[in-house]
Amino acid sequence: MQPMRAIVLTVAKYAALGFGSFVMVFPFLDMFLGALRTPAERLAIPMVYWPHDPQWHNFVRVFTELPMLTWFANSVIVTVAITTIQMVTSTMAGYALAKYRFFGSRLLLNAVLGAQMFPFFLLIIPIFFLLRFVPLAGGNDLFGQGGSGLLNSYAAMILPFAVTWYGIFLMRQSFMAVPDEIIDAARMDGAGEFRIFATVALPLIKPGLATLAIFVFIYQWNEVIWTMTVTRTAPELQTIPVGIYLLRGAFVDQSTLSLQQAAVCVSILPIMVVFLLLQRSYIRGLTAGGVKG
Amino acid sequence: MIAWLTSKRGAPYLFMAPVFVFAVFLFVGPLLFAATISFTDWEGVTAPRWVGLHNYTYLLIHDGFFLTSVWNTLVFAAGSVIVGVPLALIAAALISQSRYQSVWRTIYWLPMITNIVAVAYIWRYILNDTSGLLNRTLDVFGLGGPDWLTSTSTAMLSVIMVASWMSIGQNVLVFLSGLAEIDESYYEAARLDGANPLQLFWHVTIPLLRPTIVFVLITSLINALSAFVLMLILTEGGPARSTTVTGLYLYDMAFTDLRLGRASAAAYILFALIFVISLVQLRLLRRGSVEGA
After folding, report:
1. Cβ pair A117:B19 closer than 8 A
2. Alpha-carbon distance A1 to B195, whole Å?
3. What is the value of pTM for the model shown?
4. Which of A15, B56, B185, B274 is found 20 to 30 A from B145 (Cα to Cα)?
Protein backbone atom coordinates (compact mmCIF):
# COMPACT_ATOMS: atom_id res chain seq x y z
CA MET A 1 0.00 0.00 0.00
CA GLN A 2 1.18 3.53 -0.71
CA PRO A 3 2.64 5.09 2.45
CA MET A 4 0.54 8.27 2.03
CA ARG A 5 -2.68 6.31 2.07
CA ALA A 6 -1.59 4.26 5.06
CA ILE A 7 -0.90 7.42 7.03
CA VAL A 8 -4.29 8.90 6.16
CA LEU A 9 -6.02 5.69 7.23
CA THR A 10 -4.15 5.56 10.52
CA VAL A 11 -4.99 9.17 11.27
CA ALA A 12 -8.66 8.54 10.42
CA LYS A 13 -8.72 5.47 12.67
CA TYR A 14 -7.33 7.26 15.69
CA ALA A 15 -9.47 10.32 15.00
CA ALA A 16 -12.60 8.13 15.05
CA LEU A 17 -11.52 6.37 18.25
CA GLY A 18 -10.60 9.71 19.78
CA PHE A 19 -13.95 11.23 18.93
CA GLY A 20 -15.69 8.17 20.39
CA SER A 21 -13.61 8.48 23.57
CA PHE A 22 -14.56 12.14 23.81
CA VAL A 23 -18.24 11.17 23.65
CA MET A 24 -17.68 8.53 26.33
CA VAL A 25 -15.68 10.69 28.73
CA PHE A 26 -16.82 14.27 28.28
CA PRO A 27 -20.31 13.74 29.78
CA PHE A 28 -18.60 12.92 33.11
CA LEU A 29 -16.62 16.16 32.85
CA ASP A 30 -19.82 18.07 32.01
CA MET A 31 -21.32 16.90 35.31
CA PHE A 32 -18.11 17.84 37.17
CA LEU A 33 -18.07 21.35 35.68
CA GLY A 34 -21.73 21.78 36.63
CA ALA A 35 -20.85 21.02 40.23
CA LEU A 36 -18.29 23.83 40.20
CA ARG A 37 -20.38 26.64 38.66
CA THR A 38 -21.68 29.55 40.70
CA PRO A 39 -25.46 30.19 40.64
CA ALA A 40 -24.79 33.39 38.63
CA GLU A 41 -22.80 31.42 36.05
CA ARG A 42 -25.63 28.89 35.75
CA LEU A 43 -28.22 31.61 35.24
CA ALA A 44 -26.27 33.65 32.66
CA ILE A 45 -27.64 33.48 29.11
CA PRO A 46 -25.89 31.73 27.60
CA MET A 47 -24.73 29.76 30.62
CA VAL A 48 -21.05 30.21 31.49
CA TYR A 49 -19.62 26.81 30.58
CA TRP A 50 -16.16 26.87 32.15
CA PRO A 51 -16.48 28.01 35.77
CA HIS A 52 -14.34 31.08 36.50
CA ASP A 53 -14.58 30.73 40.25
CA PRO A 54 -14.78 26.95 40.90
CA GLN A 55 -17.10 26.23 43.81
CA TRP A 56 -15.03 23.45 45.37
CA HIS A 57 -16.98 23.79 48.59
CA ASN A 58 -19.94 22.11 46.84
CA PHE A 59 -18.08 18.85 47.39
CA VAL A 60 -17.88 19.65 51.09
CA ARG A 61 -21.58 20.51 51.12
CA VAL A 62 -22.33 17.01 49.78
CA PHE A 63 -21.14 15.71 53.14
CA THR A 64 -22.49 18.49 55.37
CA GLU A 65 -25.86 19.29 53.80
CA LEU A 66 -26.77 15.84 52.46
CA PRO A 67 -26.85 12.54 54.40
CA MET A 68 -23.96 11.35 52.22
CA LEU A 69 -22.14 9.63 55.09
CA THR A 70 -25.25 7.59 55.93
CA TRP A 71 -25.75 6.72 52.28
CA PHE A 72 -22.11 5.81 51.94
CA ALA A 73 -22.21 3.57 55.03
CA ASN A 74 -25.35 1.84 53.71
CA SER A 75 -23.77 1.31 50.30
CA VAL A 76 -20.71 -0.24 51.92
CA ILE A 77 -22.69 -2.43 54.35
CA VAL A 78 -25.10 -3.79 51.76
CA THR A 79 -22.54 -4.22 48.99
CA VAL A 80 -20.00 -5.97 51.23
CA ALA A 81 -22.68 -8.20 52.75
CA ILE A 82 -24.06 -9.25 49.35
CA THR A 83 -20.59 -9.83 47.93
CA THR A 84 -19.61 -12.00 50.91
CA ILE A 85 -22.81 -14.03 50.86
CA GLN A 86 -22.67 -14.54 47.12
CA MET A 87 -19.07 -15.72 47.34
CA VAL A 88 -20.17 -18.40 49.81
CA THR A 89 -23.32 -19.52 47.99
CA SER A 90 -21.75 -19.41 44.53
CA THR A 91 -18.57 -21.27 45.42
CA MET A 92 -20.39 -24.01 47.35
CA ALA A 93 -22.99 -24.60 44.64
CA GLY A 94 -20.45 -24.20 41.85
CA TYR A 95 -18.19 -26.76 43.52
CA ALA A 96 -21.04 -29.25 43.90
CA LEU A 97 -22.02 -28.88 40.25
CA ALA A 98 -18.44 -29.14 38.99
CA LYS A 99 -16.95 -31.87 41.15
CA TYR A 100 -19.74 -34.28 42.12
CA ARG A 101 -22.00 -36.51 40.08
CA PHE A 102 -25.14 -36.91 42.13
CA PHE A 103 -28.79 -37.60 41.54
CA GLY A 104 -30.20 -34.58 39.77
CA SER A 105 -26.87 -32.80 39.16
CA ARG A 106 -27.39 -32.55 35.40
CA LEU A 107 -30.91 -31.20 35.94
CA LEU A 108 -29.71 -28.68 38.52
CA LEU A 109 -27.05 -27.35 36.17
CA ASN A 110 -29.68 -26.84 33.48
CA ALA A 111 -31.97 -25.22 36.03
CA VAL A 112 -29.22 -22.77 37.00
CA LEU A 113 -28.72 -21.88 33.34
CA GLY A 114 -32.44 -21.71 32.61
CA ALA A 115 -33.20 -19.55 35.66
CA GLN A 116 -31.14 -16.75 34.10
CA MET A 117 -33.92 -16.31 31.55
CA PHE A 118 -36.29 -14.83 34.12
CA PRO A 119 -35.93 -11.05 34.12
CA PHE A 120 -35.88 -9.19 37.41
CA PHE A 121 -39.08 -7.24 36.70
CA LEU A 122 -40.96 -10.51 37.12
CA LEU A 123 -39.67 -10.89 40.69
CA ILE A 124 -39.87 -7.35 42.06
CA ILE A 125 -43.59 -7.38 42.88
CA PRO A 126 -43.87 -10.85 44.48
CA ILE A 127 -40.64 -10.63 46.49
CA PHE A 128 -41.65 -7.21 47.80
CA PHE A 129 -44.96 -8.52 49.11
CA LEU A 130 -43.56 -11.84 50.35
CA LEU A 131 -41.04 -9.91 52.45
CA ARG A 132 -43.83 -7.77 53.83
CA PHE A 133 -45.70 -10.82 55.06
CA VAL A 134 -42.81 -12.56 56.83
CA PRO A 135 -44.27 -13.69 60.18
CA LEU A 136 -43.02 -12.11 63.42
CA ALA A 137 -40.83 -9.55 61.67
CA GLY A 138 -41.26 -5.78 61.64
CA GLY A 139 -44.34 -5.85 63.88
CA ASN A 140 -46.03 -8.70 62.03
CA ASP A 141 -48.04 -11.32 63.92
CA LEU A 142 -47.69 -15.07 63.52
CA PHE A 143 -49.65 -14.91 60.25
CA GLY A 144 -47.58 -12.10 58.77
CA GLN A 145 -50.21 -9.42 59.25
CA GLY A 146 -50.17 -6.01 60.86
CA GLY A 147 -46.63 -4.74 60.32
CA SER A 148 -44.14 -4.10 57.54
CA GLY A 149 -42.38 -7.47 57.76
CA LEU A 150 -38.80 -7.47 56.55
CA LEU A 151 -39.27 -4.34 54.44
CA ASN A 152 -37.26 -1.34 55.59
CA SER A 153 -34.38 -3.50 56.74
CA TYR A 154 -30.94 -4.46 55.49
CA ALA A 155 -32.28 -8.01 55.13
CA ALA A 156 -34.75 -6.87 52.48
CA MET A 157 -31.97 -5.15 50.56
CA ILE A 158 -29.63 -8.14 50.77
CA LEU A 159 -31.75 -11.32 50.55
CA PRO A 160 -32.89 -11.16 46.90
CA PHE A 161 -29.21 -11.03 45.88
CA ALA A 162 -27.97 -13.79 48.20
CA VAL A 163 -27.69 -16.12 45.20
CA THR A 164 -27.11 -15.33 41.55
CA TRP A 165 -27.34 -17.96 38.86
CA TYR A 166 -24.56 -16.26 36.96
CA GLY A 167 -22.27 -16.46 40.01
CA ILE A 168 -22.93 -20.17 40.43
CA PHE A 169 -22.20 -20.79 36.77
CA LEU A 170 -19.01 -18.72 36.86
CA MET A 171 -17.73 -20.64 39.91
CA ARG A 172 -18.67 -23.96 38.34
CA GLN A 173 -16.56 -23.05 35.31
CA SER A 174 -13.65 -22.16 37.59
CA PHE A 175 -13.86 -25.41 39.57
CA MET A 176 -14.03 -27.48 36.36
CA ALA A 177 -10.38 -26.56 35.82
CA VAL A 178 -9.34 -28.09 39.17
CA PRO A 179 -7.98 -31.61 38.50
CA ASP A 180 -9.96 -34.46 40.09
CA GLU A 181 -6.67 -36.15 41.07
CA ILE A 182 -5.92 -33.44 43.63
CA ILE A 183 -9.33 -33.87 45.26
CA ASP A 184 -9.07 -37.67 45.25
CA ALA A 185 -5.59 -37.49 46.76
CA ALA A 186 -6.94 -35.36 49.60
CA ARG A 187 -9.73 -37.91 50.12
CA MET A 188 -7.15 -40.69 50.33
CA ASP A 189 -5.42 -38.68 53.05
CA GLY A 190 -8.67 -38.80 54.99
CA ALA A 191 -9.77 -35.18 54.60
CA GLY A 192 -13.51 -34.50 54.91
CA GLU A 193 -15.52 -33.20 51.95
CA PHE A 194 -15.96 -29.70 53.33
CA ARG A 195 -12.32 -29.52 54.31
CA ILE A 196 -11.27 -30.48 50.78
CA PHE A 197 -13.54 -27.78 49.38
CA ALA A 198 -12.28 -25.07 51.72
CA THR A 199 -8.58 -25.85 51.95
CA VAL A 200 -7.77 -27.66 48.69
CA ALA A 201 -10.18 -26.56 45.94
CA LEU A 202 -10.92 -22.95 46.91
CA PRO A 203 -7.28 -21.77 47.01
CA LEU A 204 -6.84 -23.14 43.48
CA ILE A 205 -9.45 -20.83 41.97
CA LYS A 206 -8.27 -17.54 43.51
CA PRO A 207 -8.35 -15.66 40.18
CA GLY A 208 -11.95 -16.76 39.63
CA LEU A 209 -12.86 -15.70 43.18
CA ALA A 210 -11.34 -12.27 42.64
CA THR A 211 -13.27 -11.88 39.41
CA LEU A 212 -16.57 -12.80 41.02
CA ALA A 213 -15.97 -10.54 44.01
CA ILE A 214 -15.17 -7.48 41.88
CA PHE A 215 -18.01 -8.21 39.51
CA VAL A 216 -20.61 -8.56 42.28
CA PHE A 217 -19.23 -5.56 44.16
CA ILE A 218 -19.49 -3.21 41.18
CA TYR A 219 -22.90 -4.54 40.18
CA GLN A 220 -24.38 -4.21 43.67
CA TRP A 221 -22.82 -0.82 44.38
CA ASN A 222 -24.75 0.46 41.37
CA GLU A 223 -27.99 -1.42 42.07
CA VAL A 224 -30.90 1.02 42.10
CA ILE A 225 -34.32 -0.38 41.34
CA TRP A 226 -34.69 -2.96 44.10
CA THR A 227 -33.03 -0.84 46.79
CA MET A 228 -35.22 2.10 45.82
CA THR A 229 -38.35 -0.03 46.01
CA VAL A 230 -37.71 -1.35 49.51
CA THR A 231 -36.22 1.78 51.10
CA ARG A 232 -38.55 4.42 49.66
CA THR A 233 -39.94 5.17 53.13
CA ALA A 234 -36.72 4.49 55.05
CA PRO A 235 -34.18 7.28 54.37
CA GLU A 236 -31.84 5.85 56.99
CA LEU A 237 -31.32 2.75 54.79
CA GLN A 238 -30.85 4.36 51.38
CA THR A 239 -27.65 3.88 49.39
CA ILE A 240 -25.83 6.66 47.51
CA PRO A 241 -27.56 6.52 44.10
CA VAL A 242 -30.97 5.78 45.62
CA GLY A 243 -30.63 8.59 48.15
CA ILE A 244 -29.64 11.10 45.47
CA TYR A 245 -32.59 10.06 43.31
CA LEU A 246 -35.25 10.01 46.03
CA LEU A 247 -34.11 13.41 47.31
CA ARG A 248 -34.59 14.94 43.85
CA GLY A 249 -37.38 17.25 45.08
CA ALA A 250 -34.86 19.06 47.30
CA PHE A 251 -32.66 20.19 44.42
CA VAL A 252 -34.63 23.18 43.19
CA ASP A 253 -32.52 26.33 42.86
CA GLN A 254 -29.23 26.95 41.06
CA SER A 255 -27.15 26.44 44.18
CA THR A 256 -28.70 23.09 45.09
CA LEU A 257 -28.55 21.90 41.47
CA SER A 258 -24.78 22.28 41.67
CA LEU A 259 -24.93 20.39 44.94
CA GLN A 260 -26.85 17.61 43.18
CA GLN A 261 -24.22 17.46 40.45
CA ALA A 262 -21.47 17.26 43.05
CA ALA A 263 -23.31 14.43 44.79
CA VAL A 264 -23.57 12.54 41.49
CA CYS A 265 -19.80 12.93 41.03
CA VAL A 266 -19.25 11.55 44.54
CA SER A 267 -21.52 8.58 43.73
CA ILE A 268 -19.35 7.61 40.76
CA LEU A 269 -15.93 8.15 42.27
CA PRO A 270 -15.48 5.15 44.64
CA ILE A 271 -16.47 2.57 42.04
CA MET A 272 -14.35 4.28 39.39
CA VAL A 273 -11.32 3.87 41.66
CA VAL A 274 -12.14 0.21 42.36
CA PHE A 275 -12.58 -0.42 38.66
CA LEU A 276 -9.40 1.29 37.52
CA LEU A 277 -7.35 -0.55 40.15
CA LEU A 278 -8.82 -3.99 39.57
CA GLN A 279 -10.05 -3.92 35.98
CA ARG A 280 -7.78 -6.71 34.82
CA SER A 281 -9.61 -9.42 36.82
CA TYR A 282 -12.95 -7.78 36.16
CA ILE A 283 -12.67 -7.73 32.39
CA ARG A 284 -11.32 -11.28 32.34
CA GLY A 285 -14.40 -12.52 34.16
CA LEU A 286 -16.71 -10.77 31.74
CA THR A 287 -15.07 -12.30 28.73
CA ALA A 288 -14.69 -15.76 30.28
CA GLY A 289 -18.11 -16.43 31.68
CA GLY A 290 -20.38 -15.09 29.00
CA VAL A 291 -22.29 -11.88 29.29
CA LYS A 292 -24.64 -10.33 31.73
CA GLY A 293 -25.55 -6.69 32.11
CA MET B 1 -27.95 -37.96 58.88
CA ILE B 2 -24.97 -35.75 59.63
CA ALA B 3 -22.61 -38.56 58.70
CA TRP B 4 -24.38 -38.92 55.37
CA LEU B 5 -24.34 -35.17 54.67
CA THR B 6 -20.60 -35.05 55.20
CA SER B 7 -19.94 -38.16 53.10
CA LYS B 8 -19.04 -38.04 49.44
CA ARG B 9 -22.62 -38.96 48.53
CA GLY B 10 -24.37 -36.42 50.69
CA ALA B 11 -21.92 -33.50 50.53
CA PRO B 12 -23.14 -32.06 47.20
CA TYR B 13 -26.64 -31.68 48.65
CA LEU B 14 -25.18 -29.86 51.64
CA PHE B 15 -23.21 -27.59 49.31
CA MET B 16 -26.37 -26.88 47.32
CA ALA B 17 -28.53 -26.33 50.42
CA PRO B 18 -28.37 -22.49 50.49
CA VAL B 19 -29.30 -22.39 46.83
CA PHE B 20 -32.24 -24.75 47.41
CA VAL B 21 -33.55 -22.52 50.19
CA PHE B 22 -33.08 -19.42 48.07
CA ALA B 23 -34.74 -21.03 45.06
CA VAL B 24 -37.81 -21.98 47.08
CA PHE B 25 -38.34 -18.70 48.94
CA LEU B 26 -36.88 -16.08 46.64
CA PHE B 27 -37.26 -17.50 43.15
CA VAL B 28 -39.76 -20.28 42.42
CA GLY B 29 -42.05 -19.24 45.27
CA PRO B 30 -42.27 -15.60 44.17
CA LEU B 31 -42.72 -16.60 40.52
CA LEU B 32 -45.67 -18.84 41.47
CA PHE B 33 -47.00 -16.20 43.82
CA ALA B 34 -46.94 -13.63 41.02
CA ALA B 35 -48.60 -16.08 38.64
CA THR B 36 -51.35 -16.70 41.18
CA ILE B 37 -52.09 -13.08 41.98
CA SER B 38 -52.16 -12.28 38.27
CA PHE B 39 -55.57 -14.03 38.34
CA THR B 40 -56.80 -11.90 41.22
CA ASP B 41 -57.70 -8.35 42.09
CA TRP B 42 -55.39 -7.32 44.94
CA GLU B 43 -54.30 -4.02 46.39
CA GLY B 44 -51.86 -5.59 48.86
CA VAL B 45 -53.85 -5.26 52.08
CA THR B 46 -57.16 -7.11 52.01
CA ALA B 47 -57.51 -10.67 50.74
CA PRO B 48 -57.02 -11.10 46.98
CA ARG B 49 -60.25 -11.57 45.00
CA TRP B 50 -60.21 -14.22 42.26
CA VAL B 51 -61.05 -12.74 38.86
CA GLY B 52 -59.88 -15.45 36.49
CA LEU B 53 -58.41 -14.17 33.24
CA HIS B 54 -59.89 -10.72 33.67
CA ASN B 55 -56.53 -8.97 34.22
CA TYR B 56 -55.15 -10.45 31.02
CA THR B 57 -58.18 -9.64 28.90
CA TYR B 58 -58.36 -6.18 30.43
CA LEU B 59 -54.74 -5.40 29.58
CA LEU B 60 -54.86 -6.80 26.08
CA ILE B 61 -58.27 -5.45 25.06
CA HIS B 62 -59.63 -2.69 27.28
CA ASP B 63 -56.60 -0.97 28.77
CA GLY B 64 -56.06 1.97 26.48
CA PHE B 65 -52.33 2.15 27.16
CA PHE B 66 -50.93 -1.36 27.65
CA LEU B 67 -50.46 -2.11 23.94
CA THR B 68 -48.96 1.34 23.44
CA SER B 69 -46.45 0.53 26.18
CA VAL B 70 -45.59 -2.72 24.38
CA TRP B 71 -45.10 -0.72 21.19
CA ASN B 72 -42.84 1.70 23.09
CA THR B 73 -40.89 -1.29 24.41
CA LEU B 74 -40.40 -2.68 20.91
CA VAL B 75 -39.39 0.73 19.54
CA PHE B 76 -36.87 1.20 22.35
CA ALA B 77 -35.45 -2.32 21.95
CA ALA B 78 -35.20 -2.13 18.17
CA GLY B 79 -33.78 1.39 18.36
CA SER B 80 -31.09 0.58 20.88
CA VAL B 81 -30.02 -2.46 18.85
CA ILE B 82 -29.96 -0.52 15.57
CA VAL B 83 -28.03 2.39 17.11
CA GLY B 84 -25.91 0.56 19.67
CA VAL B 85 -24.72 -2.63 18.00
CA PRO B 86 -23.22 -1.15 14.78
CA LEU B 87 -21.43 1.55 16.79
CA ALA B 88 -20.01 -1.11 19.12
CA LEU B 89 -18.90 -3.21 16.15
CA ILE B 90 -17.15 -0.28 14.49
CA ALA B 91 -15.48 0.75 17.76
CA ALA B 92 -14.32 -2.82 18.43
CA ALA B 93 -13.00 -3.23 14.88
CA LEU B 94 -11.01 0.01 15.18
CA ILE B 95 -9.71 -0.88 18.64
CA SER B 96 -8.59 -4.33 17.50
CA GLN B 97 -6.42 -2.65 14.84
CA SER B 98 -4.92 -0.10 17.23
CA ARG B 99 -2.29 0.21 19.88
CA TYR B 100 -3.13 0.60 23.59
CA GLN B 101 -6.20 -1.62 23.22
CA SER B 102 -6.81 -1.91 26.97
CA VAL B 103 -6.89 1.89 27.33
CA TRP B 104 -9.56 2.28 24.63
CA ARG B 105 -11.51 -0.62 26.09
CA THR B 106 -11.45 0.97 29.54
CA ILE B 107 -12.66 4.32 28.18
CA TYR B 108 -15.61 2.74 26.37
CA TRP B 109 -16.39 0.69 29.47
CA LEU B 110 -16.68 3.62 31.91
CA PRO B 111 -20.48 4.10 31.62
CA MET B 112 -20.94 0.38 32.37
CA ILE B 113 -19.60 0.87 35.91
CA THR B 114 -21.56 4.08 36.48
CA ASN B 115 -24.79 3.85 38.45
CA ILE B 116 -27.91 4.51 36.42
CA VAL B 117 -28.97 7.51 38.48
CA ALA B 118 -25.69 9.22 37.60
CA VAL B 119 -26.06 8.24 33.93
CA ALA B 120 -29.57 9.68 33.81
CA TYR B 121 -28.61 12.93 35.55
CA ILE B 122 -25.48 13.42 33.47
CA TRP B 123 -27.59 13.26 30.32
CA ARG B 124 -30.44 15.33 31.71
CA TYR B 125 -28.06 18.26 31.93
CA ILE B 126 -26.46 17.60 28.55
CA LEU B 127 -29.82 17.23 26.79
CA ASN B 128 -31.31 20.32 28.45
CA ASP B 129 -32.97 22.51 25.83
CA THR B 130 -31.21 25.82 26.43
CA SER B 131 -28.21 25.29 28.68
CA GLY B 132 -27.34 21.71 27.69
CA LEU B 133 -24.02 20.88 26.10
CA LEU B 134 -25.55 19.18 23.06
CA ASN B 135 -27.73 22.04 21.88
CA ARG B 136 -25.02 24.58 22.62
CA THR B 137 -22.65 22.57 20.45
CA LEU B 138 -25.25 22.35 17.70
CA ASP B 139 -25.76 26.14 17.96
CA VAL B 140 -22.08 26.67 17.21
CA PHE B 141 -22.67 24.94 13.88
CA GLY B 142 -25.81 26.94 13.31
CA LEU B 143 -28.11 23.97 13.91
CA GLY B 144 -30.91 24.47 16.39
CA GLY B 145 -31.37 21.32 18.46
CA PRO B 146 -34.80 20.21 19.65
CA ASP B 147 -35.95 20.05 23.24
CA TRP B 148 -34.57 16.53 23.51
CA LEU B 149 -36.20 15.14 26.65
CA THR B 150 -39.42 17.11 26.87
CA SER B 151 -40.71 16.83 23.31
CA THR B 152 -42.74 13.74 22.44
CA SER B 153 -41.05 13.46 19.05
CA THR B 154 -37.48 13.23 20.39
CA ALA B 155 -37.76 11.81 23.93
CA MET B 156 -37.64 8.17 22.83
CA LEU B 157 -34.72 8.89 20.51
CA SER B 158 -32.90 10.55 23.41
CA VAL B 159 -33.51 7.57 25.70
CA ILE B 160 -32.22 5.24 22.98
CA MET B 161 -29.07 7.36 22.57
CA VAL B 162 -28.40 7.38 26.31
CA ALA B 163 -29.02 3.62 26.58
CA SER B 164 -26.60 3.01 23.71
CA TRP B 165 -23.97 5.21 25.34
CA MET B 166 -24.46 3.34 28.60
CA SER B 167 -24.11 -0.17 27.21
CA ILE B 168 -21.70 0.17 24.27
CA GLY B 169 -18.79 -1.07 26.41
CA GLN B 170 -20.49 -4.42 26.95
CA ASN B 171 -20.80 -5.10 23.24
CA VAL B 172 -17.36 -3.71 22.42
CA LEU B 173 -15.93 -6.25 24.84
CA VAL B 174 -17.79 -9.18 23.29
CA PHE B 175 -16.87 -8.07 19.77
CA LEU B 176 -13.22 -7.70 20.78
CA SER B 177 -13.04 -11.27 22.04
CA GLY B 178 -14.78 -12.44 18.86
CA LEU B 179 -12.33 -10.48 16.71
CA ALA B 180 -9.36 -11.91 18.60
CA GLU B 181 -10.38 -15.39 17.48
CA ILE B 182 -10.31 -14.57 13.77
CA ASP B 183 -7.16 -16.03 12.26
CA GLU B 184 -4.79 -13.43 10.87
CA SER B 185 -4.19 -15.60 7.77
CA TYR B 186 -7.61 -14.68 6.37
CA TYR B 187 -6.56 -11.04 6.35
CA GLU B 188 -3.17 -11.85 4.86
CA ALA B 189 -4.81 -13.74 2.01
CA ALA B 190 -7.31 -10.95 1.33
CA ARG B 191 -4.53 -8.34 1.42
CA LEU B 192 -2.52 -10.31 -1.12
CA ASP B 193 -5.60 -10.14 -3.33
CA GLY B 194 -5.40 -6.35 -3.00
CA ALA B 195 -8.32 -5.74 -0.61
CA ASN B 196 -8.42 -2.35 1.11
CA PRO B 197 -9.27 -2.02 4.83
CA LEU B 198 -12.94 -1.33 4.14
CA GLN B 199 -13.20 -4.42 1.95
CA LEU B 200 -11.39 -6.44 4.60
CA PHE B 201 -13.96 -5.34 7.17
CA TRP B 202 -16.90 -6.02 4.90
CA HIS B 203 -15.80 -9.27 3.25
CA VAL B 204 -13.62 -10.89 5.92
CA THR B 205 -14.45 -9.52 9.37
CA ILE B 206 -18.25 -9.40 9.12
CA PRO B 207 -18.76 -12.94 7.73
CA LEU B 208 -16.28 -14.52 10.16
CA LEU B 209 -17.71 -12.58 13.09
CA ARG B 210 -21.26 -13.59 12.28
CA PRO B 211 -21.84 -15.90 15.29
CA THR B 212 -20.64 -13.14 17.64
CA ILE B 213 -22.80 -10.56 15.88
CA VAL B 214 -25.88 -12.74 16.21
CA PHE B 215 -25.08 -13.36 19.89
CA VAL B 216 -24.74 -9.64 20.56
CA LEU B 217 -27.94 -8.86 18.68
CA ILE B 218 -29.86 -11.40 20.76
CA THR B 219 -28.52 -10.40 24.17
CA SER B 220 -28.89 -6.68 23.41
CA LEU B 221 -32.46 -7.10 22.25
CA ILE B 222 -33.46 -9.19 25.28
CA ASN B 223 -31.79 -6.78 27.71
CA ALA B 224 -33.48 -3.82 26.02
CA LEU B 225 -36.91 -5.47 26.15
CA SER B 226 -36.76 -5.74 29.94
CA ALA B 227 -35.12 -2.34 30.56
CA PHE B 228 -37.13 0.34 32.33
CA VAL B 229 -35.04 1.90 35.11
CA LEU B 230 -33.35 4.36 32.73
CA MET B 231 -36.74 5.68 31.60
CA LEU B 232 -37.97 5.84 35.18
CA ILE B 233 -35.13 8.16 36.19
CA LEU B 234 -34.39 10.01 32.95
CA THR B 235 -37.90 10.89 31.76
CA GLU B 236 -40.28 9.28 34.28
CA GLY B 237 -41.89 7.77 31.19
CA GLY B 238 -42.82 11.15 29.76
CA PRO B 239 -43.52 13.41 28.10
CA ALA B 240 -47.11 12.27 27.63
CA ARG B 241 -45.98 8.69 28.39
CA SER B 242 -44.02 8.58 25.11
CA THR B 243 -41.15 6.75 26.85
CA THR B 244 -43.27 4.56 29.13
CA VAL B 245 -42.17 1.04 28.27
CA THR B 246 -44.09 -1.95 29.60
CA GLY B 247 -41.65 -2.60 32.45
CA LEU B 248 -42.09 0.96 33.71
CA TYR B 249 -45.86 0.85 33.19
CA LEU B 250 -46.21 -2.26 35.32
CA TYR B 251 -43.80 -0.98 37.98
CA ASP B 252 -45.96 2.11 38.45
CA MET B 253 -49.10 -0.02 38.26
CA ALA B 254 -47.78 -2.06 41.20
CA PHE B 255 -46.06 0.48 43.42
CA THR B 256 -48.00 3.67 42.68
CA ASP B 257 -51.52 2.41 41.89
CA LEU B 258 -51.23 -0.79 43.97
CA ARG B 259 -52.94 -2.84 41.27
CA LEU B 260 -50.84 -5.89 42.04
CA GLY B 261 -52.90 -8.48 40.19
CA ARG B 262 -52.98 -6.50 37.00
CA ALA B 263 -49.31 -5.57 37.26
CA SER B 264 -48.35 -9.23 37.70
CA ALA B 265 -50.42 -10.13 34.64
CA ALA B 266 -48.61 -7.39 32.70
CA ALA B 267 -45.27 -8.77 33.88
CA TYR B 268 -46.14 -12.25 32.65
CA ILE B 269 -47.37 -10.94 29.29
CA LEU B 270 -44.10 -9.05 28.83
CA PHE B 271 -42.14 -12.14 29.88
CA ALA B 272 -44.06 -14.26 27.37
CA LEU B 273 -43.26 -11.73 24.65
CA ILE B 274 -39.55 -11.77 25.52
CA PHE B 275 -39.59 -15.57 25.67
CA VAL B 276 -41.13 -15.90 22.20
CA ILE B 277 -38.72 -13.37 20.71
CA SER B 278 -35.78 -15.24 22.30
CA LEU B 279 -36.96 -18.57 20.87
CA VAL B 280 -37.31 -17.11 17.38
CA GLN B 281 -33.84 -15.60 17.66
CA LEU B 282 -32.31 -18.80 18.98
CA ARG B 283 -33.60 -20.60 15.90
CA LEU B 284 -32.01 -17.93 13.74
CA LEU B 285 -28.79 -18.28 15.76
CA ARG B 286 -28.66 -22.03 15.16
CA ARG B 287 -29.20 -21.56 11.45
CA GLY B 288 -26.65 -18.74 11.43
CA SER B 289 -23.94 -20.75 13.11
CA VAL B 290 -24.50 -23.73 10.82
CA GLU B 291 -24.15 -21.54 7.76
CA GLY B 292 -21.14 -19.82 9.29
CA ALA B 293 -19.39 -23.13 9.95
Report:
1. no
2. 10
3. 0.90
4. A15
